[in-house]
TrEMBL record:
Keywords: Oxidoreductase. The keyword Plastid does not apply. Residues 1-41 are annotated as: Disordered. It comes from Staphylococcus succinus. InterPro entries: NAD(P)-bd_dom_sf, Sc_DH/Rdtase_CS, SDR_fam. Signal peptide: none annotated. This is KR domain-containing protein. Belongs to the short-chain dehydrogenases/reductases (SDR) family. Residues 17-28 have a biased composition (Low complexity).
Amino acid sequence: MASQDPRTKFSNADFPQQEQQAPGLQQQLDPKPDCGETSYKGYGRLKDYKMLVTGGDSAIGRAAAIAYAKEGADVAINYLPDEEEDAKEVKEIIENEGRHAVLISGDLRNEQFNYDLVEEAYHKLGGLDNVTLVAGHQQYKNSIKDFDTASFSETFETNVYPIFWTVQKALDYLQAGATITLTSSVQGYNPSPILHDYAATKAAIISLTKSLSEELGAKGIRVNCVAPGPFWSPLQISGGQPQSKIPTFGQKEVLGRAGQPVELSGVYVHLASEESSYTTGQVYGVTGGTQLD
Ligand code: NAD
Ligand code: MG
């Protein structure tokens, strides 16, 4: 048989216990997530597209950025200054595909930075066909009583406000045929009591996918969203989950293991490409089995 068993396509062994300070570095993650560096094959589905990916240095955003380049796109990635080392690796991978890579570090909680980011990406890429927003902040808390306004705000300022700011600015440049891809989570449907703030931002992103798609569809711009289940990434081991949950992370899913970021690549590519020309306002679940409802 040519097809592969999804349960054993990637390891389902326990992950080693490990902790980093947020935002966490992919370079220090053990094992390294598979972001398609060698495993993803492109077929020219985004030939000469110009893409902007936030959170493009590591894990899910990195997988999207690499897949876009392997499909023939030029890619600008945004990340935090502390993540420069991860970002440089992604630049090299994109350039090895013969594509143009633009690195733009900066904090998306800063409103003006969002406008500057979109403008710089547009000018350095020489156009803009897609904005893929992957950056996110997740810090678990044992109880609602452990939140303070600053931590609650940080989650909304990172996960929700940049959608408004980047989309507003991108509309100066995006033309009919362009796409916007947001990143929610199963948490947007099934909120966990240790992630009150995060889950609420991910529900907001689902709502924005729908309302933005209604407004922008009239301009020929499609807006869709990816909702991942548990994926192996720096976010999880840098306060996204309690340490006790790291070793068996993802094992409760129907498929019995955590996802690897490359398993999202095809969905991000599909939503940005002509293949999905009749798809807008949709949320694509890639969850290992958990239902989105
Ligand atoms: P990750 O740590 O690799 O990615 C998160 C990225 O967000 C970081 O690389 C960082 O560059 C960026 N970021 C965080 N704060 C920022 C800020 N203030 N300014 C600019 N950039 C900032 O982890 P990941 O798991 O790949 O997460 C990517 C996205 O996927 C997030 O939105 C996350 O909520 C979502 N997600 C992840 C999972 C999972 O299990 N890993 C599940 C569902 C959804
Ligand atoms: Mg990172």
